[in-house]
Amino acid sequence: MPQRFSISTVVFFVLMLLLGIYFAYAAVQGPSGILRRVQIEAETAELREQRDALQAEVDETRNLTRRLSDDYLDLDLLDERARDVLGLVRADEIIIR
């Protein structure tokens, strides 16, 4: 003879199933879920690349500033910057653009 489940047992198991589905969905799609974590890691990697590029730019600017400072003057760089900014040319030079 088959055993019949009471209505309260069926309701309990259905509620537990629904609760399990909800928690599984929250673990994947929720604000702290797996997909959000992957998205945050991708954003973090992109921001690190931007930070590294900006740091390289700062280092280059710092190097140029040091080379044009009073303590250490790079005459070749000074000549290059004066030509670029002021448009200076020596009399024996030909400009090709």
What does this structure look like?
This protein has helices at 7-29, 34-67, 75-86. The chain has one domain. By secondary structure, the protein is mainly α. Helix content is 71%, strand content 0%. It is rod-shaped. The chain is built from three helices and no strands. Residues 37-71 form a coiled coil.
Write the layout of secondary structure elements.
Elements: H1 7-29, H2 34-67, H3 75-86
Number of structurally distinct domains: 1
The secondary-structure class comes to mainly alpha
| Total of DSSP H or I helical runs spanning 4+ residues | 3
Oligomer: single chain
Low-confidence stretches: none
**Strand and helix order:** HHH
Average pLDDT taken over every residue: 89
Radius of gyration: 34 Å
The total count of strands amounts to 0
Q: Tell me the fraction of residues in β-strands, as a range.
A: under 5%
**Portion of residues within helices:** over 70%
Q: Specify the overall morphology.
A: rod-shaped
Largest sheet: none
Protein name: Cell division protein FtsB
InterPro entries: FtsL/DivIC (IPR007060)
Pfam families: DivIC (PF04977)
GO biological process, one term: cell division
